[in-house]
What does this fold into?
Amino acid sequence: MQSHVRPPSLNGHHAAPPSSGGAFAAVRGRTVFPHERVLPAPATLLYAWQRRQIAGTPLIRLPQWLLLTGGVLWATSLLPGRWWGAGLCLLLLLALQGTLWWLRRHDFVHFTPGALPLVRPQPLEPAAKIPLFATGLFGVERKEQRFTWLPGFYRTFATREHALLCQVNDHPAGFGSSPPEEEGLWYVFFTPATIESVEGGNLSFGRNHRPALAVCYRHIPARQKEKQSPTSQLETVYLAFQQEADCHTVLADLLFDLPAAARQQLQPAEQSLSPCKP
It folds into this structure.
């Protein structure tokens, strides 16, 4: 494990959004974000290819265009083995698209449910920051974007609003670069009243595996917030930790004021809460 030191940054030129509960406070000074090497695997490579760009075009377009072009060339007899070649390109293109659809549906990660550790509910100090890797729907100002395995921190403010403060950085290694408008800090905010369920287990991002919590909560999309009667939707955010102790600390904080409806789902000792399926 390593610690990666980066100065605090903003999402592009946009300031961090104030919390609707008035709980947000800017963190001054240099912040040490968690860092670990993401091991090569189909899921991690496809995630990188869909996010990284060359001249504004996602890298994932390259294999798609190559397969499509190859299929057309074979189908028009410009290459030998007409229908065999065209059929192979079509099958590979369908396999690629199907794999992408499945991985995007699960945010490119796989969560394996397990037993919740036995912890005593205890609130987290407002100044405490627990390092983690978060996966789910993030927001900044009026923008929303799904990210996977973002390094960041879990915090709970004095108002008991929970927050994930995560950072998107462009890594120079490899081809392409991240969209500049996505670089900077992204956030997830949820309150105890919006939590539907919490589940313990293990989160896998390719060959990277970490103890994790899956928190299902009710979220009002940015496009709904200006309506008189906004409609909420279920979202699941995955919190992966480098240390088991950090997982236990966050779980104890979440359980401290878990809503009665969610608390009733608690099973006997060493059982997990019922999962929430969006």
Q: What stands out?
A: Confidence is low (pLDDT under 50) at residues 1-27, 267-275. The chain has five helices and twelve strands.
